[in-house]
Write a structure and sequence with these properties.
Elements lengths: L1 E3 L13 E5 L3 E6 L7 E4 L1 E6 L5 E4 L7 H6 L1 E4 L5 H18 L9 E5 L5 H14 L4 E6 H9 L4 E6 L4 E7 L2 E2 L5 E3 L3 H13 L5 H8 L10 H19 L6 H5 L1 H6 L3 E4 L5 E4 L1 H4 L16 H10 L6 H5 L2 E4 L8 H13 L4 H4 L7 E4 L4 H14 L9 E2 H7 L16
Parallel strand pairs: 1-17, 2-8, 8-9, 10-16, 16-17
Antiparallel strand pairs: 2-3, 3-4, 5-6, 5-7, 9-18, 10-11, 11-12, 11-13, 14-15
Pfam family, one: Actin
InterPro entries: Actin, ATPase_NBD
Family: Belongs to the actin family.
Length: 416
């Protein structure tokens, strides 16, 4: 496993652009050339009616008064249908501009999109930003491409472990290859639920714990939708802090090894300390198992993505497996993925099996950076200069319409 640190690669003469990553559970916004996003918030929008009867919206859900907390209705991007999703994204972008004190008409925008996004979704994003916000220029880049940039890899297999899903896709010469995309519906949120159910079976009530953390014992302390958001956030935080995977399949199956590990402790928001045993802490092992055939393990996603690429690329791709996303923060995950890949690759075609000893998994040096590697890759890309092929200007949008955006960005390299 190779740890990477790309801070030194950020140029000092950065292009002034706003970089957005609107993820399923978290939205990040900041300026190009900076190491960290200035704005980080949940991908959710709350609505409530104030004392005068006027409908209000809130995105900063961590600083609400008690009365609003009881009445607010929270809509989350991870659960939104298509039409609602577009509205929520627009409001999250508006919040980002406002929090950055940036006039959208004065800043070009780089927008990260998920690997599975369609050309229609990309066109609608262009329409939203050019017509709704009046931005002067736009670059839309896929999350896998940006993660590869942050990792310093022109060609790689990018494993993106979000709350909603897990995916693996090939990036070749800086451009994502859509035909290689492999996805699975089991993501960090599903594993966190398994993890915390095991804790709940031991007597820990997340619902009651979250309410007590607000300083109120009443069941009316939080609205149901806000409570659900807080509980899910807490479950993911507990899993990321205490969850772990064993370095190999053999050690995972060893009961002696499990018994030898001391229980792990976590300080809950309400002041209680929960002790998590080894059996509970290893719930994330599900990322590498079949779960009764209901999902594909990570190593299978990676190898199937590689198989979809040209055989002459297999050597470079297996040497450059990049992991990112919230769930990739689990202790021991990169090491375990590398071990599983080396084991499973032995059963594949010669172009893959011959590279078993050269398989390498790359992860950000700081674990928390794996969560934001997509945004940081966007910060690097946006700071490299206003290449005509990468960016679509407002004038081009007015002349050719939103469909032109699909020929811009890093995929424009395919048309050169």
């Amino acid at each position: 496993v190779i740890l990477i640190n790309m801070a030194a690669f950020l140029p000092s003469n950065a292009l002034d652009a706003v970089v957005f990553e609107v993820g399923s559970t978290c939205t990040r916004a900041g300026f190009s050339g900076e190491e960290n996003a200035r704005v980080v918030c949940a991908s959710a929008v709350g609505t409530y009616v104030d004392a005068s009867g006027e409908e209000k919206r809130a995105i900063d859900l961590d600083h609400l008064c008690a009365d609003v907390e009881r009445r607010i209705k929270v809509r989350r991007l991870i659960h939104a249908h298509y039409e609602e999703r577009e509205e929520l994204v627009q409001r999250l972008l508006a919040h980002g501009f406002s929090a950055l004190n940036a006039n959208p008409k004065e800043f070009p925008v780089l927008l990260a999109e998920e690997a599975a996004a369609s050309s229609v979704s990309r066109r609608r994003s262009a329409e939203m930003l050019f017509e709704g916000f009046g931005v002067p220029a736009l670059c839309v880049a896929r999350s896998a491409e940006l993660a590869a940039i942050y990792a310093g890899r022109s060609s790689a297999v990018v494993v993106d472990m979000t709350a909603a899903s897990s995916s693996a896709v090939v990036v070749a010469d800086g451009v994502m290859q859509p035909r290689t995309l492999q996805t699975d519906k089991v993501g960090g949120a599903a594993i966190a639920q398994i993890f915390c159910k095991r804790i709940a079976d031991g007597g820990i009530n997340f619902d009651g714990m979250t309410r007590r953390a607000q300083g109120e014992g009443s069941r009316a302390a939080l609205s149901q939708t806000l409570l659900s958001l807080r509980n899910d956030e807490l479950m993911r935080e507990v899993m990321e802090s205490l969850g772990r995977v064993q370095p190999s399949r053999a050690s995972s199956a060893s009961s002696a090894a499990r018994e030898a590990r001391a229980p792990l402790e976590y300080l809950l928001p309400d002041g209680r300390v929960v002790s998590v045993g080894a059996e509970q802490a290893t719930a994330p092992e599900a990322f590498f198992s079949e779960l009764a055939g209901k999902h594909k393990p990570l190593q299978v996603l990676v190898l199937e993505a590689v198989k979809c690429a040209e055989p002459e690329l297999h050597k470079d791709l297996l040497r450059n497996v990049v992991v990112c996303g919230d769930a990739s923060c689990l202790l021991g995950l990169p090491e375990r993925l590398e071990a599983e890949l080396k084991f499973s690759a032995q059963l594949c075609a010669p172009t893959i099996s011959s590279q078993v000893n050269r398989i390498a998994v790359h992860a950000a040096a700081a674990v928390v950076e794996r969560k934001s590697s997509v945004w940081q890759g966007g910060s690097i890309l946006a700071s490299l200069g206003a290449s005509h092929e990468l960016w679509m200007s407002k004038r081009e949008y007015e002349e050719h319409g939103g469909a032109l955006i699909s020929r811009k960005g890093l995929q424009s390299l395919q048309f050169m």
